[in-house]
Amino acid sequence: MVTLVVATSADPASIGPASSLLAMPGWHPGPSLQGAASYTNKEVRLIKLDKRLVVENHLDKRWEEATGETVGDVVFLSKHVASSNRPALTIHPIGTPHLREGEAMTAGGKPGWAAPPNPRIGPWFRLLKNIAYSHNLIPEFEVTLEATHHGPEINSPTMFVEIGSTEEYWKRQDAAQAIALLVWEGLGLGERIPVGDWCRDNVGDKILLGIGGGHYVPRHMDIVQKDGVWVGHMLSGYSLLMEDPEERKALTNSVVVGGTWRETIRVAYETTKLAFPGGEVLAHLDHKSFKSWQRNAITGFLAEGNIKIARPNDFCPC
């Protein structure tokens, strides 16, 4: 079982951390993947591509077919773009479960799809904050989670680790070094134990499925900052497409609220369960981000699917 770390020369925020990572000891040339170079270090395989990462579909399957190695999880190194232009280091799961057939897939993926979230997301977010502090990147850089979004289509547990938000910061060597150190320590390539491995000892642990809020999921992130909290998909309000029932707003769970929101939640829940075998996936709602009719519809749907709703303290591993 190997971990794929994927970078592309088309992205300075991707190739910078990859180069810093390869400068660390223990790397050896690996097999070529359809013309792309790879490097091996213990159970880690770093692939250097030359296309946009969001269009590189099924890299896990392609690697397995080329090498015979089973892919356990995938980490993409990428740039982050934000209208604020604020420097940032971000981590997020991927998927486009809210999109309908026929909609334009401008950032990869496919309608109604989400990759299983990489179980390392929560532990690596906390590790990244510590690394950023120790390298004096905070407060200049914000360290944050993002909601589930974009492709590429893939079936293995996956996450994106990104540097934002403009070309000036994508090329920052100190930011690249911080991301490289995150991967180095997080995957146990040094002398430390890997961070964020989900195993049989974690059976019964609780996993946060975030529902609602903005793109940077602040209410969910407040919980994930606590040691020992696992995190799955995080669905921002804009991905929960709900058709306003208008005059029937006074009704509660019986209201039939149209839109893709049900399928979005269902796919996010099922793929999160897939990523954490034996774990208990609990929904955490950003209640204040919803109107009452939206909140009633969502809580009713969760109850129908036997998906428990949890409070912040319910995720405390102690």
From TrEMBL:
Transmembrane segments: none annotated. PANTHER family: D-AMINOACYL-TRNA DEACYLASE. This is D-aminoacyl-tRNA deacylase. It holds the Pfam family tRNA_deacylase.
